[in-house]
Design a protein that fits this description.
mainly alpha, single chain, 64 residues, 73% helix
Length: 64
């Protein structure tokens, strides 16, 4: 009888864990205030054409 109870409780725990995993927030997608400010500045620079493509940077580095 005790084993059956343990098994039932484990099934409930597994169900809860599955729910938590499904609804858990990925901490890597949360930005700090500083990161958000830097992102906004970067997007503004991109919009204003103040950025360089990675290919241009690689080419410039090879020339050095």
């Amino acid at each position: 009888m005790e084993n059956t109870q343990i098994l039932q409780e484990l099934k409930v725990i597994k169900k809860d864990l599955d729910y938590i995993k499904e609804h858990m927030i990925d901490v890597d997608i949360i930005l700090t205030h500083e990161e958000e400010t830097e992102l906004e500045e970067s997007l503004k620079e991109l919009e204003e054409g103040k950025t360089f493509s990675f290919d241009i940077i690689k080419k410039d580095r090879k020339d050095v």
